[in-house]
Amino acid sequence: MANAQNGAAPLAGRRAAVTGSTSGIGLAIANALAAAGADVALNGFGDAQPAIAEVSAHGTRVIFANADLSDGDAAEAWVREVQAGLGGLDILVNNAGIQHVEAIETFPNDKWNAILAINLSSNFHTMKAAIPAMKAQNWGRIVNIASAHGLVASPFKSAYVAAKHGVLGLTKTAALELAETLITVNAICPGFVDTPLVQGQIADQAKANNMSEEQVIRDVILASQPSKRFVPPADVAAMVAYLCSEAAGGITGSALSIDGGWTAR
After folding, report:
1. Is 116 helix (H, G, I), strand (E, B) or coil?
2. Is 242 a catalytic residue?
3. Per-residue pLDDT reduced to its tens digit, 12-59
4. What average pLDDT does the segment 73-83 reach?
5. Are residues 221 and 211 in contact, defined by beta-carbon separation less than 8 angstroms?
6. Its pTM surpasses 0.85
7. Which of 112, 139, 160, 230 is catalytic?
8. Which residues, in sequence order, are bridge partners of residue 183?
9. Per-residue confidence (pLDDT) for residue 4, from 0 to 100
10. 88-126 in b/e burial notation, b at 16+ Cβ within 10 A?
């Protein structure tokens, strides 16, 4: 578990795993960690080859390990697979998430259970599996990607808001349990980020509501975001890379907002 010295890549020798990293925010995070010198394990659904090729271009080792993270045993087994594939694990980024929007009284039970399982419980299970080895080496970085909805609520997103609030509580608890070690645990709370998933939602809403995409962005998607600009995925990724560096060793138990002023209201 060598680390960079004398101006070398800040995460050289580190081994990182990022859930939900074949596209969007997760892929941006994987790229940032690889660019900083870390070996990276990717995870996600669909064709992983484009993401593997993209992250590999930074010149570090890249592996792909998939799992059904909604299953606790599978999530913990995924960590062990990554540890075997990379020869250890220094950095864990929990980014995988799903969403469903509906009023509480009609919210499907299976959607509630799935969102809690992926967005919250999977974080617990991957952390549970990763922490023992991090404690044994007395170094680690855990970053949980929460949301502005971990700090404030919006209607029709009961499961997502509940899960993201839970992520912040889990993050704080783990940080306190590990406070006397060199393992930090933090959360990032992005607002609306410009991802392929969000772009698809814009097009769908424009068609359904007979609005221009510009109107949907301004009046619907970014109505709560004072900047009226999407957060670039690279901004979230840069914060993750910083939190995983030696320079951020004193930051733990924090929920860091990158939301264009959303939660400043």
Report:
1. helix
2. no
3. 999 999 999 999 999 999 999 999 999 999 999 889 999 999 999 999
4. 98
5. no
6. yes
7. 160
8. 140
9. 45
10. bbbbbbbbbbbbbeeeeeebeeebbeebbbbbbbbbbbb
